[in-house]
Design a protein that fits this description.
Length: 139
């Protein structure tokens, strides 16, 4: 079941969003409603937000294509809206979705699959803070 707002609720929600800060775009964080995994980050303009809240399917503004795109329009891997939460600054929206298929265009479950966080390794061979890539090379 998708979250689809009435026109009145849609206008009330959109009226709260500050599109001015981002030059007409707001950052969107898309999270899996079941697992809480962050799936992707993208942008919406006001029209993409209207389409999303009218249809219950995620629409984004593509900065490279310079147009609105329905997530999964080519792959068929759709995102069904479950909830939308505006942040404290009124300029970022968290969308909880039911992901149908894979999220990332690379064929992965999430777009966040390139770890670069530093880890502290403590064992007889290493005692240092390294990136994950460096750990594979050094230890």
């Amino acid at each position: 079941m998708a979250l689809i707002l009435s026109e009145e609720d849609l206008e009330r929600f959109i009226g709260q969003v500050d599109f001015r800060k981002g030059g007409g775009l707001v950052p969107i964080i898309t999270q899996d409603a079941l697992s809480d995994k962050v799936l992707m980050q993208a942008f919406m303009d006001e029209e993409a937000q209207r389409l999303t809240l009218r249809t219950g399917e995620m629409h984004y503004w593509s900065r490279s294509r310079r147009r609105i795109w329905l997530n999964g329009e080519e792959s068929g891997n759709r995102q069904i809206v479950q909830n939308a939460v505006l942040d404290c600054g009124d300029d970022t929206i968290l969308f909880k979705v039911r992901q149908l298929g894979l999220c990332c265009h690379t064929g992965r479950e999430t777009c966040f699959h390139k770890p670069t966080l530093a880890l502290v390794i403590l064992n007889e061979h290493c005692e240092t803070s390294l990136t994950l890539k460096a750990i594979r090379q050094v230890c």
